[in-house]
Amino acid sequence: MTLAAEQPRVAAWLGRLAAIGADPPGITRHAFDDRENAAHALAIEDAERLGLEVTRDAAANLYLTWPGQDRAAPRVMLGSHFDSVRHGGNFDGAAGVLAALAAVSALRAAGFAPRADITIAAFRCEEAVWFGLGLIGSRAALGILPPDALDRRRADTGMTLAEHIARCGGDPSAIAPGRRLLPEGPIRCFLEAHIEQAPSLLEAGLPLAICTGIPGNIRHAAIRIVGEDAHVGLPRRFRRDAALAGAELFAALDALWAAEDAAGRAMALTVGRFHTDTAKHELTVVAGDFTLSLDLRAYDAAHLAALEQRLHGIVSDVAARRGVTIDLGPRNAAPVGPCDATLQRELAEAAARLGIATMPLGSPASHDAANFAAAGIPTGLLLIRNAHGSHNPHEAMDTPDLMAAASVFSEWLRVEA
Ligand SMILES: [Zn+2]
Known about the structure:
Blueprint: H1 7-21, E1 22-23, E2 26-27, H2 34-50, E3 53-56, E4 62-66, E5 75-81, H3 94-109, E6 118-123, H4 136-141, H5 161-167, E7 187-195, H6 200-204, E8 208-214, E9 216-226, E10 230-231, H7 242-262, E11 267-270, E12 274-276, E13 285-286, E14 289-298, H8 301-322, E15 325-327, E16 331-334, E17 337-338, H9 341-353, E18 358-362, H10 368-374, E19 379-384, H11 399-416
Parallel strand pairs: 5-6, 5-7, 7-19, 8-18
Antiparallel strand pairs: 1-2, 3-4, 4-6, 8-17, 8-19, 9-14, 9-15, 9-16, 10-13, 11-14, 12-14
Helix pairs in contact: 1-2, 1-3, 2-3, 3-11, 7-8, 9-11
Zinc ion (ZN) binds next to loops.
């Protein structure tokens, strides 16, 4: 079943979502804030049109459920998120919720009656920019939110995560390690559609990829290097230059990545912050203080653990060579999310039946789906062609490509649900 009839409604939805988040030069939908709430209200409006049950959990995540004929049967879950980074694009996250709603809308219009419940989730606060920790809503829903997360404060509001959740109608006191907030009953699988954050599909000329795995990551938001502030005339042998140590650390990590790439072991690393101390850096002062961030990601848990060991080795080497101390600071981690092999095959077959060409592809980024995979729930992820990457105002997904993802979901649900 293709979803041509759904496309005008989906296009109108994307326009309303863009208006909600309009924040030139891009889109900002703050997590746990009025704009994310407005996006949730749009989803609820569509759910009411479709006669879906609307529920929320203690983390203020939203669930839209199409009741099945056997309500005790393991439910199929689909979903993604509505929050964005500041001045981001319109499609990161939102595309996944819209694809799931369009699939359900088409199946209802065709008179389909699912055997088990189908639940569409809109998880809160997927982006790590708001509280320095990503995938917050899905972590809370699965009972794996780090215990200290509720006390984290957001820089712009000064409010804690717990206060933000309560403000959106949630109940932070009910969020605890090991306590699932998801709708009651067993879950058969979790499916997500998400724009690709790299140009692989653009390069291949294909609308969709069947994701083979979601990388886990290890993050250090503030690595501090301390050497010694010194006069610009100090001879080289006396220097303990923290900026040069930072540069050497970054270059050594890049060399590690190049070697892994050459060996065919997929990974990525990003140094997003890289700076001297702005309060005291000067043209004529050797920098004694340096700060950088590091995101290290890979698709295999053992590979990621080995990379972290290599990181520690490189840090020790650079510190010794440059006469500085390097403190990695707080560590956050997200688990590797392997995509279920059966779901990969079924999604590829569903696409093939519709004449939609796909290819297998590792996800460049972490997604809510990774938490489901790490929790042992069979997980499938469709990546949608998208130009100009994401987390910037220039995301450019074509609506027909989103409809291709929705069509694959509806075809999979028609056969499997
Ligand atoms: Zn996203």
